[in-house]
């Protein structure tokens, strides 16, 4: 795909969204583990 080399801002949002999603999943896991241990 020749269009992949073009630098468009949507690529930046992609890793930001991925990072936020990972952090949310991590916090949810911590919360569940905390509730179980309590």
List the defining traits of the structure above.
rod-shaped, mainly alpha
Question: Would you kindly provide a written description of the structure presented here, covering whatever features stand out?
Answer:
The protein has 38 residues and is mainly alpha-helical. The protein has a domain of 25 residues. The chain is built from one helix and no strands. The radius of gyration is 17 Å and the shape is rod-shaped. The mean pLDDT is 83.
List the helices and strands and how they pair.
Blueprint: H1 10-37
Shape category: rod-shaped
Cα-atom radius of gyration: 17 Å
Structure summary, number of beta strands = 0
- Average the pLDDT over all residues and give the rounded result: 83
Unreliable runs, pLDDT <50, ≥5 residues? Answer: none
Structural class label: mainly alpha
Number of helices: 1
Strand content: under 5%
- The amount of helix comes to over 70%
C-alpha end-to-end distance: 52 Å
Largest sheet: none
Order of SSEs: H
